[in-house]
Amino acid sequence: MDKELQELFSLPTKLQVAADINGVKVYSSDKLKASFIKTFQKTGRGKFIANQIEDIVKSGDIVPCYLSKGILKFVAHRLFGKSNKSIAGLFHPEMRKVFVLIDNNINIFGTGSSDLLVSTTIHECMHLLAAKQRKRFLSIFKPILLKYYTEVFSDIFQINGQINPKSVQKIYEFISYFEYSKTYVINKRLTDYYKLLEKEFQDKSKLDSNEFRQILTEYIVCLKLVLSQWNVFIKNIRRFTRIIGPLYDGYRTAFGKRNDYTTPIQELIYPSEIASVYSEMFTSDGLIKQAFKALA
């Protein structure tokens, strides 16, 4: 049997409603949670944080769950279901919980892909930490946030020479409020962001004033659409290649690896996305261990 298919999960019996996610009920049980924890205890990629995972599951911040309550529905979902098939897990910002969708990670015989479950959980827990403990998150991941955003901003705004790390830190701390706080006024926040970027980068850019303001305006418009008109953004995504391209390249230049896990967009407004992708690139990195100790 393939090494990825290691853990046998219980069939979805004796399940209780765990949550209602935007009108979609998900189901869990003590047996399912125990199997989920065992996956981390037995899997090489998850063993080093197994104790913390157990604590976080028991606290309710990680919810392993099924989309289907009964066995017949479960089998039908695996054989015929099309909705949510590509989603392995998600972080719900309002509930501040991570939901790992077990029936999207196992084959029709009930065998789970351990690596997928572990990497999905670790990825989503970076968002959880950023939402629940913003200052702790920013402290732990300062080295990688500085590396990534230095590369991205240097590329987008064509910076001449080395960017001052204090400028980069000031900027990513500013945008971290987009995922931490839900009380901001978008237009006011983006206006302040425009002014901050202009102040920190215009004098250091190789671009002339008109070119700099043009790319800066494009950058802010891109953010506005991502934050408030996602469908419009997707329809016009090709217009923003000068913004999206550096988000891709930033991982390779900062960490020496391509991002083969996600489509970089969230990085514009969610610094935790960099930590999430980094956690999949370097699962056993000490920063990941620190993050889970903070969550447990």
Task: Describe it.
Helices cover 56% and strands 10% of the residues. With 296 residues, it is mostly helical. It has 2 domains: 5-133, no CATH class; 142-270, no CATH class. The strands form 3 sheets. It has a 3-stranded mixed sheet with strand order 4-6-5. It has a two-stranded antiparallel sheet with strand order 1-7. A two-stranded antiparallel ribbon has the order 2-3. The longest helix is centred in the last third of the chain and has 20 residues, at 209-228.
- Percent helix: 55-70%
Uncertain spans, ≥5 residues at pLDDT below 50? 1-8, 74-87
Query: Largest sheet, if any?
Result: 3 strands, mixed
Terminus-to-terminus distance: 33 Å
What is the residue-mean pLDDT, rounded to a whole number? 86
Number of domains: 2
Question: Which key phrases capture this entry?
Answer:
about 300 residues; 3-stranded mixed sheet; disordered N terminus
Give the helices and strands, then pairings:
Blueprint lengths: L4 E4 L7 E6 L2 E5 L1 H13 L7 H10 L2 E4 L5 H10 L8 E4 L4 E5 L9 E3 H19 L1 H7 L1 H15 L8 H11 L1 H4 L5 H16 L7 H20 L1 H6 L5 H15 L16 H10 L4 H10 L1
Parallel strand pairs: 4-6
Antiparallel strand pairs: 1-7, 2-3, 5-6
Brief overview, please?
The protein is mainly α. It is built from 14 helices and 7 strands.
